[in-house]
Amino acid sequence: MKVGDLGLIGLGVMGANLALNFERNGYVVAVYNRKEGEGQDVVSRFMKENGKNKNFIPAATIGELVDKVSRPRKIVLMVTAGDPVDELVDQLLPHLSLGDIVIDGGNSDFRDTDRRVRFMESRGIWFVGCGISGGAEGALNGPSIMPGGSVEAWPFIKDMLQSIAAKLEDGSPCCRWIGSGGSGHFVKMVHNGIEYGDMQLIAEMYAILKQALGLGNDEISRLFELWNHGDLNSYLIEITASILRYKEKSGEYLVDKIRDVARQKGTGRWCIEVALNEGEPLTLITEAVYARMLSALPEIRREAASCYPDNITEKWHDTDFSVDMARDALYVSKMISYAQGFSLLQRASSHYGWHLDCASIAYIWQNGCIIRSAFLRKIVSAYKKDPFLGNLLFDDYFKNTVISLQNGWRTLISRGLFSGIPLPCMTAGLTYFDGLRTENSTANLIQAQRDFFGAHTYERTDADSGVFFHTDWKNF
Questions:
Q1: What is the CB neighbour count within 10 angstroms for residue 400?
Q2: Are 199 and 236 spatial neighbours (Cβ–Cβ below 8 Å)?
Q3: Which positions fall inside the 6-phosphogluconate dehydrogenase C-terminal domain (predicted)?
Q4: What CATH number has the domain bearing residue 250?
Q5: pTM to 2 decimals?
């Protein structure tokens, strides 16, 4: 009887493509789907479409799936995050043995993963929360993989995961061990937050090029293609160029027919929530999430548009100069976004004791994932030089780039705002930068106000740190 090298539960698009990826790389995969879809047996359909002359083993029950996998068993879950994962864990447990491994490849909340790691380890089972980025295409052809949890599982799953991961030019896999607990899913969550920021920054640049400079879709597409051959080289810039030039049979641009409502699945909100809890200013990514929320209010926006006239009084005429500024502003804004994202990684690493390797994380994001870009090499280099770098903006490359480009960055943002173009992420990035470099801020006044109405006390500049004072402000 054929025995599987691993079992995979969940044959949706991501799960099915991941199963195909494993099989293509030499693994025998036992497959099971916990529910039937649209009146058809999902496993039977998968086998009919993909099973001919392939190393797949269908299973009708969870028990049958587990029995058909060699020990230590490696079971990959590709199901919706939340309760479905807990339900599957409960159903799997009676069939598992000491030392078996369960891998959650969905977009689970890292706190849930941390809980599951502890729960499963208490029963002698290793649990891995595995962030997988790259969408359906990545799952099939090679995603970026971020495994974390029970480190005891890593020797048994390392070759398996690295074989299906995306590869860099030198053949290195975009999969490295992240850390303990829920660290793998945490890193994937931050990846998704950065993805939100990247997408919104590109959308804001699209607004400037289209509304202020008056460029057409083809012109903007060619511009993005040009930028994709320089510092801004990335998957998202590449696909944006393709999207902008795509025409329907009618000859009309498809992008112009798409409703301006951007939806979200929740990982961006999780990222903001965690940043707030950690006290980390994730301002640019937060504005990206809020921008999607605002886009989801078309009726309110329509009413507001009827109340207030269009503020764009004229097109910008110095196109060449403005296009150069636009490129530079997008690049610097991207730097700010990643600086905030990696600061959150460092803060959480310290809080949870994960000992995250930021250079390694940037390394495995260089291919396979949605935010893959040439820019990540700069981040790898920065953290290799200084693993304890306080902020990416302190690295020499980042510092020199921001200094040399900041005048154009400021000019573009100010002109855009004066023209009435909403630039929530760009302005948030610039404000963060200015706040970060302000040695003596106005927070002294805020703390005095807090002491005035709430007796919250304050520290003095002429006294030791940690010594607190209170003033009766009404008696002076």
A1: 10
A2: yes
A3: 184-474
A4: 1.10.1040.10
A5: 0.93
Of 23, 68, 74, 195, which residue is the catalytic one? Answer: 195
In a domain, 454, yes or no: no
Q: Does residue 195 carry a catalytic annotation?
A: yes
Crossing angle of helices 283-295/424-436, nearest 10°? 160
Look up the domain containing 65 and give its range: 6-177
List 68, 74, 188, 378, catalytic entry: 188
Are 202 and 123 within one domain? Answer: no
pLDDT one-digit tens code per residue, 436-463: 999 999 999 999 999 999 999 999 999 9
**Within this chain, do residues 163 and 201 fall inside the same structural domain, yes or no?**
no
pLDDT for position 40: 46
* Alpha-carbon span 10 to 23, nearest angstrom: 15
CATH number at residue 50: 3.40.50.720
Known active-site residue 188: yes
What average pLDDT does range 235-246 have in this prediction? 97
Residue list for the binding site: 107, 133-135, 191-192, 196, 265, 292, 450, 456
| Same domain membership, residue 198 and residue 96 | no
In this structure, are 163 and 263 located in the same domain?
no
- Tokens 């599987």 belong to which residue? 4
Q: Which two tokens stand for residue 166?
A: 């995306």
Q: Into how many domains does the chain fold?
A: 2
